[in-house]
Amino acid sequence: MNGVKSVRKFKPNDTFGEPSVRKRLAKPWVTFVDDVEFGTIFHLELLMFYKAMEAPDVRQTDKLVATLKQMQATGIKTVVYSISWQWAEPEPGKVRTEYISWLLDAACKNTGLQVDLIVDLLNPPDWFWRQYPDARPLDSDGRNYTRMSWFHPQGNKAALTLLSSVATHLASNYPGCAKAIQPVYNNEYEAKYTQEYDSFQDYGPYALAEYRRWLQAKTQDVNVINLRWGKRYKTWDEVRPPALHSGDFQGVDFSADYWDFVRFREEFGAAHYNKACATVHAAGLMCFHHFPEFFTVIDAMYGATMFRLIASSPFTDFVIMDSNFMTPYGTVMNPHKLRVYISAAHAYGKPVYFEAAVERFKDFDLLASGFYNSMLAGADNIGITNWHTRVDMNASLTKAMHTAPTCGSCEVVGVFLHLQSCAAYHGLQWKWARKDPLHDMVEELAEKLHDGDCGTDIAVYIELDKFLADMGSFSRAVFVEPLVLWGTAEMDNYIKVKSALEKLPHTIMHMPTNVTSGPQLMVLADL
């Protein structure tokens, strides 16, 4: 996996930070010719275009094989399928291995493509609901959803059992062809919380019990919570998080009860994804995750701050940063922002892929620009999804996926943008002139830094310690002041970074807030 890592060209005596970051900073710009460009065929597309749910003799196997061969001719090396738990396990313990083998055989026995598989655990089969009728999540308004709550212990165990069965089948029967699995609990196949009706979740009984256990692991005294949150709880059974909705609070929220809930959702969600990947590893396959675009005011609602804990997990082998090129306004995103978003993933030492989702905008020039900017950001691989009926597998796509910038960089700009502070917003700012001022700020910063094209290499960091470790390699820096720091350790790193900035050409920026008086930066003590 030796794709484009960086446009940086350093002298041999240059020194860098920690080893996992050093590789990215030291890698020279090379032509983008990697071996794992990928294309996705989702479960719904398999049903629509290849009659996948029909009997074996009715399925359009020849058509699927022809599509796979066309993908390979275009230069794609890996097909990414997805399967749904609802379809894959019609009865407890009875996995449709024949169907899974049909998918794998089409690629492994007829082409040179390798296979990655997305296992959708969001929607369980009917038997699951008969066994666990209370396993549905509730949102902040008490609405009941038709999918599994990952806080439900028995339901979660059933999901991991299915995941283990599928992973074991692939590893045992398709060695060398089946490579990796992504476990998902989200309707967009991304590592985040699924939210509907602009309401945070989960507020069901299992989620509340888990939250109370999380708090009690930090303090057994409910009065500590009362003092911290300004409440008057008499027992732990009364303790509950604030009822949150996207856009219900304008500006940034500095309240401790809000931030404790944000931190809990981050830690629990990441641990859940990491446990699923540990299950995949135990079967002998690699594990990966898709991540949505972050650096927006909806990061808190979707739990985007989980990224750092998932990307740094030993059970995560590579990460896919995806984009559908749509802003929170429903307009076309400036693809230069991809450089900031994708670059932020490199600090965790894992291969970083970019996936273009083309369901929103059928614009080939936009797609090509997305690939180009992902290469500038050092993406190890690139891929495409939702391309059926929208993008043809042809020479034009091959060229777009393999045309890399040929120029070199003359400077490295280190950018610090604290992802956890992006969670200070509840959601879209409906009463502001801009609904998503955070997205706007980052997009404008990306455009300004892109003025140098290849000449300016952008190294983005979302955690202070990783930014601090690499500051010696920067030509200059852009430091976006954080809003919230967690505990003494992060505060100490903040002080060290601010001191080191004095020795480096730098620009200070501030996240957009509506706070005209009061706190500019909050240091929240650990419980």
Major sheet details: 8 strands, parallel, barrel
According to CATH, the fold-level topology of the domain at 19-203 and 241-407 is: TIM Barrel
Determine the CATH superfamily of the domain at 19-203 and 241-407.
Glycosidases
Q: How is the largest sheet built, in terms of strand order?
A: 1-2-3-4-5-6-7-8
> How big is the Rg?
23 Å
- How many distinct helices? 18
Shape: globular
Distance between the termini: 42 Å
Structural class assignment: alpha/beta
**CATH architecture tag of the domain at 19-203 and 241-407:** Alpha-Beta Barrel
Low-confidence stretches: 1-34
Describe this entry's structure for a reader.
The protein has a domain at 19-203 and 241-407: TIM Barrel (Alpha-Beta Barrel), CATH 3.20.20. The chain has helices spanning 19-26, 43-50, 61-74, 85-88, 97-108, 126-131, 153-173, 205-216, 222-229, 256-283, 299-302, 307-311, 337-343, 364-376, 395-402, 437-449, 464-470, 487-501; strands spanning 38-41, 78-84, 114-120, 178-184, 286-291, 318-323, 352-357, 381-385, 411-416, 456-461, 476-481, 484-486, 506-510, 522-524. 37% of the residues lie in helices and 15% in strands. The protein contains 18 helices and 14 strands. The strands form three sheets. It has an eight-stranded parallel barrel with strand order 1-2-3-4-5-6-7-8, surrounded by seven helices. It has a four-stranded parallel β-sheet with strand order 10-9-11-13. It has a two-stranded parallel ribbon with strand order 12-14. Mean pLDDT is 91; it is low at 1-34. Helix 13 (337-343) links the parallel strand 6 (318-323) and strand 7 (352-357). The protein has 527 residues and is of the alpha/beta class.
